[in-house]
Design goal:
The complex is a heterodimer of chains A (297) and B (288).
Chain A (H helix, E strand, L loop, with lengths): L6 E11 L1 E3 L5 E3 L9 E10 L3 E5 L6 H7 L8 E6 L2 E2 L6 H7 E4 L12 H11 L4 H14 L15 H13 L5 E5 L7 H17 L3 E5 L3 H4 L4 E6 L2 E6 L1 H5 L2 H6 L6 H11 L11 H13 L2
Parallel strand pairs in A: 5-10, 5-11, 8-9, 9-10
Antiparallel strand pairs in A: 1-4, 1-6, 2-3, 6-7, 11-12
Chain B lengths: L2 E10 L7 E11 L4 E5 L6 H8 L7 E6 L2 E2 L7 H7 E4 L12 H11 L4 H14 L4 H4 L9 H13 L5 E5 L7 H17 L3 E5 L3 H7 L2 E6 L2 E6 L8 H6 L6 H11 L11 H13 L6
Parallel strand pairs in B: 3-8, 3-9, 6-7, 7-8
Antiparallel strand pairs in B: 1-2, 1-4, 4-5, 9-10
The chains are: A alpha/beta (297), B alpha/beta (288).
């Protein structure tokens, strides 16, 4: 559905292999548990304006590495990453790229730089030399966008993980990025915190037309994405809508991922002679399907 | 009886402007052999509660008896207590510190002043228990290992104390689906073979449904409910009001019941659900 939108990020034949130095001082290629080279190998993809893209894959599949190439935290060893037409290899373009692509990481406590919420959010715009009155405006706007405006004068230390992550998102928003990358930003949160962060992200995607790239291990978080890309061994192995991905039970399990439990149940029941729609992810819809199939006999 | 907690109260920063009643009249009994899941959202008191169990937090009021050790007494044998209750914190891999995996796992037993031979035996046993290859890992730096392996080493360090009660605070946080399953299967096998009592803080209700035999629901510093995972289905509205959830398939079970398809209580895992629904289908469908 976004193929008609503007292509804003273009990754072409991206390769980045982590290396390490062995006891003899030689550079060697790092290996994952599966004894594959650790990193990315020949990855190509496009990200379109306004889409909600989910990146999934087991630990070590390369998704965080890919995310880090999108705002030049990692520069490709070969291949190219172009962000709004700027190549991440050109050092002088890096500040502009980072203004456009904001990152939110996993641990909320590692992302706070100031002891008062509004100072923390102001840190980014201050650094890029935004004039003072506009900083105030941006901070207020960013905090309202994540529904944390009442906490502007408070200290983040006593807040919940979900609140801290929303402040981290506000800090990124204050730079007015066009893309936000969330690298497992919900992994350390409780269900309520996860919901707060996801609702915030979805709202920013819909209302502010910010392109979202969400990296996650929670398959239920993927369901709202427009498109899902699955990585395994540093390569893209699946791509499609959540429905298209989770219809392929075998393949999803092969790459070390899981189906959302409702979809898994539908697949298992079909093996026992049911004829359920496996593209159903919510309890009520599957419930209705089961009723129909049992009551019509 | 394994753990008996009576009228436990705990206040952070008492008599200061930051005074906070973290635990209010908590009563809870955990029997030997239980796999207890503790659920509750941030600030409900669950971490403060588990920190009492091996004396990390000093008892203020109430009584706690852990495997015969009375924590309300003035003199507590902490060495014995900490050998009895093994505590695995959130992201335990961040607590690894030694130069080699061997030394890290040996740290606890060394502090118990055991003989060299006994320490060696325990380290080998613990590393084997968590499913790592002793010869491959024992002389490696823990920091060379992958995230999942590091977590196993941290767990081995606790198991080397041969605890009777294992407390785990969100053992699956941050792992991928495969990693989660491996850790929980490991805990289940420890429960069967080595540590009779497991207490696990976990937010994922589907994991709770699959692995635990009892669930304590913490809310605002108290134990609101102590029930079996099967009984969670009956508390759907109450738990949702607390900002918690019930297992996905318990929701489905309730939904189907409203439509006239009533399933047994234990229908909260995929396997059971498939078994019963296939059975109904084979018998010619539901009679509504």
């Amino acid at each position: 559905m976004f193929n008609n939108s503007k292509e804003i990020i273009k990754v072409k034949d991206l390769t980045y292999i982590y290396t390490t130095v062995d006891d003899e001082g030689n550079e060697v290629i790092e290996q994952t548990d599966a004894k594959q080279a650790n990193g990315l190998q020949g990855v190509s993809l496009s990200v379109y304006e306004g889409e909600f893209l989910a990146l999934v894959g087991h630990n070590g599949s390369g998704k965080s590495t890919l995310a880090k190439t999108l705002n030049a935290l990692i520069v490709p060893q070969s291949g190219d990453v172009e962000v709004f037409g700027l190549n991440t290899k050109n050092h002088k373009d890096v500040p502009e790229i980072r203004r456009n692509v904001g990152m939110v990481f996993q641990n909320p406590d590692n992302q706070m730089v100031a002891s008062i919420v509004e100072d923390d959010v102001a840190f980014g715009p201050e650094n890029i030399g935004v004039p003072q009155p506009e900083i105030v405006e941006r901070v207020n706007w960013a905090l309202s966008a994540v529904k944390m405006q009442d906490f502007a004068k408070r200290t983040p230390t006593k807040m919940s993980g979900g609140q801290k992550q929303r402040i981290a998102i506000a800090g990124v928003l204050a730079l007015k990025p066009k893309v936000i990358v969330l690298d497992e930003s919900t992994a350390m949160l409780d269900p309520q915190g996860r919901k707060e962060v996801l609702d915030t992200v979805k709202r920013l995607n819909k209302e502010e037309n910010i392109t979202i790239i969400l990296i996650t291990h929670f398959m239920d978080e993927v369901l709202d994405a427009d498109r899902v890309i699955a990585l395994d061994g540093g390569k893209i192995v699946m791509e499609g809508t959540p429905h298209e991905i989770f219809a392929q039970e075998q393949k999803v399990k092969e790459i070390g991922l899981d189906l959302p439990i409702i979809s898994n149940l539908a697949h298992q029941l079909n093996k026992k002679g049911f004829d359920l729609d496996v593209n159903v992810f919510d309890v009520e819809k599957l419930g209705d399907e089961i009723c129909q199939s049992l009551l019509k006999i | 009886m394994s753990i008996v907690v009576k009228d436990l109260n705990f206040v952070y920063s008492p008599k200061s402007p930051f005074e906070k009643h973290a635990l209010i009249n908590v009563n809870l009994t955990v029997e030997e052999g239980d796999f207890l899941a503790i659920i509750g959202h941030t600030g409900s008191g669950k971490s403060t509660f588990v920190q009492h169990l091996n004396g990390l937090v000093k008892l203020q009021s109430g009584t706690i008896i852990v495997d015969g050790i009375d924590l309300s007494q003035k003199k507590i044998d902490y060495k014995k207590l900490r050998g009895t209750v093994g505590m695995v914190f959130q992201y335990p891999e961040y607590q690894l510190f030694a130069d080699t995996v061997y030394d890290d796992v040996a740290f606890g037993p060394k502090n118990l002043k055991l003989s060299k031979q006994e320490i060696d035996e325990r380290v080998k046993e613990a590393i084997k228990l968590v499913g790592l290859d002793f010869d491959y890992v024992n002389q490696k730096s823990p920091f060379e290992l992958s995230g999942g392996e590091k977590r196993r080493v941290a767990l081995a360090g606790v198991l080397a104390m041969r605890p009777k009660i294992l407390v785990l605070d969100e053992p699956t946080a941050g792992l991928d689906p495969q990693g989660k399953k491996e850790i929980l299967d490991l805990v289940t096998s420890l429960h069967k073979t080595m540590t009779p009592t497991i207490i696990m803080i976990n937010h994922d209700m589907d994991e709770v449904a699959r692995y635990a035999n009892k669930v304590a629901v913490f809310d605002m510093g108290s134990v609101k409910y102590l029930l079996t995972p099967e009984q969670l289905a009956q508390k759907q509205d109450e738990l949702v009001k607390m900002g918690l959830d019930i297992p996905t398939l318990a929701k489905l079970k309730n939904y189907l019941a409203n439509k006239g398809i009533v399933l047994p209580d234990d229908c909260i895992t995929v396997e059971k659900m498939v078994e019963y629904l296939a059975d109904i289908k084979a018998k010619g469908g539901a009679n509504v």
